Amino acid sequence: MEIDFSILPVNPLKMYGGANGSKIGILYKGETYMLKFPPKPVLNPSMSYANSCICEYVACNIFKTLGINTQDTLLGRYGEKITVACKDFETDGFVLKDFVQLKNTIIDSTQNGYGTDLSDILRTIQQQQIVSPVELEKFFWEMFIGDVLLGNFDRHNGNWGFLVNANTGEVKIAPVFDCGSCLYPQIDEKGMGYALSNEKEIEDRVFVFPTSALQQEGKKINYFQFLMTTENQECLEALKIIGSRIDLSEICSVIDNTPFVSDTHRCFFKRMLKERKTKIIDKAYQLHF
Hints:
Layout: E1 3-4, E2 22-28, E3 31-37, H1 51-65, E4 73-78, E5 81-87, E6 94-98, H2 99-103, H3 118-127, H4 133-150, E7 161-165, E8 170-173, H5 189-196, H6 199-207, E9 215-216, E10 219-220, H7 223-229, H8 233-245, H9 248-256, H10 263-288
Parallel strand pairs: 1-4
Antiparallel strand pairs: 2-3, 3-5, 4-5, 6-7, 7-8, 9-10
């Protein structure tokens, strides 16, 4: 059944940050969701307004198939617009604190909280004391491998983090959230059709772009090159764990059951995920193991 978000009650006390579009709090079946309205594309006005909403919904549900704790999402309409609702996990006294804020507490960090140098991020993970460093690094690398599969170009320090309860002192790692930069949200229907009929376009989207938001030596990390050359044992362990959980048939089922998606878009999703699994994840797995 198609959800009409416009008829749901609004929670005016829920106000959300972030730079990508307007957001309001709505109540659905007694629970609060953040309804996201991404801005209309400026550089490519012909691109569907709904792309990032659909990509966020699909990516979050694929993350779940990998056994990674991920934010619940819903797709529906608000008037004529297709929008995504993301379940609010700030409940029972827990408040979201992003990795930026944690990184700012590490006084000998070489960068500020927004700095995305990989070595500095890993140093912060090891030096912080609010959660187990071992548990946090495991989560970080498993999320990274999920982002490799999904082609996330914007996993920065502001869109992953922790849930903190100041009253009880309890801290837990937040579910994966903000996945609207996965699965090539900036490509339009015409571009999808062209890519599906052009092997070089597919190859470029596997081996050249998107890159990670993380950096090494001042350059954004190329996912393929990184996984083929890394000696980081925690990363390789995550590759082994998440790589073994990738089930293309389950992923295709997620895509097939996603509303508002054209046949071309479904084909594009399936083709790119198969290519990224085979040519990045599987190849790196075979090389290292």
